[in-house]
Design a protein that fits this description.
This protein has 22 helices and 10 strands. With 530 residues, the protein is of the alpha/beta class. The strands form 2 sheets. The chain has a 5-stranded parallel β-sheet, with helices on both faces. Strands 7-8-6-9-10 form a 5-stranded mixed β-sheet. It is rod-shaped, with a radius of gyration of 43 Å. The two termini are 84 Å apart.
Length: 530
């Protein structure tokens, strides 16, 4: 880049002579302006921002001393070389004292001017290098300070930064409130096991998000970005609690407009003291986890959740209803029961992704196994449940998991073979489902045979053929299986459980239970807890 030069003299012939005296281009210089008095020279300096000004020391309106004083006062980055007549020699020496690089006596000698220009260029380069070194040092200091602050905020939000430490006092002095909040930023689709992003791309996105946060927080005022638990976090001071939400909206908007990516941000509640930022940080992470239930690409402010109700019995009934829909070849009934079951799981597990996934897994597994156990034949060699829990874990939201499960079970429905050879198995599945639904009532071989439109003698043979058990033994096993469930999941008394599973006599129930499991109901319950 050429060095910019201004020539100034009240005699045009002098300027013309200066232009021709040396090869400016060979010296890497470009004459960008010329002036004929002191006012014009200052205007040219302001307009063209030259590196060097070569000027007569005695000009109309403003003298060379006036010019050099003004340059010094305003710290303008221009080097001045004065030209003086012999009788102005002492005047020129004063100018050098005020900061001029040098002075030359008229008439100018080419070699002398070139030497002074070379000297001036050397000074410019030295100063430029000093500025670069200073800027580099300041940048390194800022980076070091920023890294230090990030580390302090990680420890502060971990609760491991001592209130007696210098770091704590520094944060306290700089972040004086009245409110403080923590935000957690999560880029959609880039974390976890996603194969969409390569490591290098993830690093570039992380770097870009860091720059956006740093710039926005710098413009906002008192804020600090830091990296924790593999996520971008930030702490911010604000007077109005709503300010934290507005800032989060701006961050999400900038990530969308600059990076063309969607992001969710979890916000902890504002706290009045930096010592409480550990709480706001914990809440921000909990708020962000709620995107699994609320949906992606949104600002989520932490709220406390209501106590969840016990839905175990309700879920068991809905699972059984779903199985009944499958085994009776009533897809609409199965689909309706499944939807109710998944909605119930969503309500019960709200705020706990792991619980939602595990409950859905156990429910789907129960349905598939019960359909298989019913004796119904599935086309295509069966239904693949390999790696089912991992598949459920890969869904980004509960809504997506619900849709995926509905699709899986619809596939199960389509694989059920309901041709003529399977009619008896479908009938047997309906009989089993009826027993599962009515085992708590006074259920007899005659009453169930009538439901199947068979006489009791034929029904007894039909039932044993398909279950390898007699009817009474099968009903007893169903009742005992449900008794075990009630013993291990409720605080009901033994006599209450006996009634729930179809026994009017608690003693008879206990005897039957011990015969099957080798222990009395209370003994079984205590051993299950230990």
């Amino acid at each position: 880049m050429a060095i910019r030069v201004i020539l100034a003299d009240d005699e045009p012939l002098i300027i013309k002579g200066l232009r021709k005296l040396i090869d400016w281009e060979a010296l890497g210089m470009d004459i960008v302006a010329q002036a004929y008095d002191g006012h014009e020279l200052m205007e040219a300096i302001e307009t063209h921002k030259p590196d060097i000004a070569i000027s007569d020391i005695s000009m109309p309106h403003r003298s060379g001393i006036d010019i050099i004083k003004e340059i010094k006062r305003r710290s303008l980055p221009v080097k001045v070389i004065f030209i003086s007549a012999y009788q102005e020699f002492s005047y020129a020496k004063d100018a050098v004292a005020y900061g001029a690089v040098d002075y030359l006596v008229k008439p100018l000698v080419k070699r002398e001017l070139e030497n002074v220009l070379i000297k001036t260029v050397s000074l410019l380069r030295q100063e430029d290098e000093q500025v670069r070194q200073k800027d580099k040092l300041q940048l390194l200091e800022r980076r070091s300070r920023n890294e230090e602050m990030r580390d302090w905020f990680v420890r502060l939000t971990d609760g491991t930064l001592s209130e007696q430490s210098e770091a704590y006092r520094t944060i306290k002095a700089e972040f004086y409130g009245p409110f403080h909040s923590i935000g957690v930023v999560d880029i959609e689709g880039i974390g976890g096991e996603s194969e969409r992003w390569r490591d290098q791309e993830k690093k570039l996105v992380d770097f870009a998000v860091e720059n956006i946060l740093t710039e926005l927080l710098s413009g906002y005022g008192r804020g600090q970005m830091f990296y924790k638990n593999k996520r971008h976090m930030y702490a911010v001071d604000h007077a109005d609690p709503e300010e934290a939400i507005r800032l989060a909206e701006v961050i999400r908007e900038k990530i969308g407009s600059y990076l063309k990516l969607e992001a969710s941000i979890g916000l902890g509640r504002p706290v009045p003291d930096i010592a409480l930022l550990v709480q706001s940080c914990r809440e921000a992470e909990q708020a962000l986890s709620m995107k699994y239930f609320l949906g992606l690409n949104r600002i989520i402010v932490y709220h406390e959740h209501e106590q969840k109700r016990d839905v175990e019995s309700e879920l068991y009934a809905l699972r059984s209803e779903t199985v009944r829909g499958f085994t009776s070849n009533d897809w609409q009934a199965a689909k309706s029961a499944m939807k109710s079951m998944l909605d119930t799981i969503g309500t019960a597990a709200y705020g706990n992704q792991a619980l939602a996934v595990s409950t859905c897994f156990s429910s789907v597994l129960f349905i598939i196994q019960e359909v298989k156990n019913s004796g119904i034949r599935l086309s295509g060699g069966g239904f693949d449940i390999h790696d089912l829990q991992s598949r459920l874990n890969r869904f980004e939201t509960f809504a997506a998991m619900k849709q995926g499960i509905m699709g899986m079970l619809e596939e199960l429905h389509h694989r059920i073979d309901d041709k003529a050879g399977n009619k008896e198995k479908l009938l047997m599945a309906r009989i089993k489902q009826y027993i599962d639904d009515h085992y708590a009532e006074e259920i007899t071989l005659d009453s169930v045979a009538s439901i199947a439109y068979m006489n009791p003698y034929y029904f007894s043979s039909f039932f044993k053929k398909h279950t390898m058990q007699n009817f009474k033994q099968y009903v007893t096993e169903v009742r005992m299986k449900n008794a075990v469930r009630l013993l291990t999941t409720t605080d009901m008394m033994v006599y209450e459980i006996a009634e729930k599973v179809g026994y009017n006599n608690a003693r008879h129930f206990s005897d039957m239970f011990k015969k099957m499991y080798g222990k009395l109901p209370l003994e079984f319950k205590q051993s299950a807890k230990s």
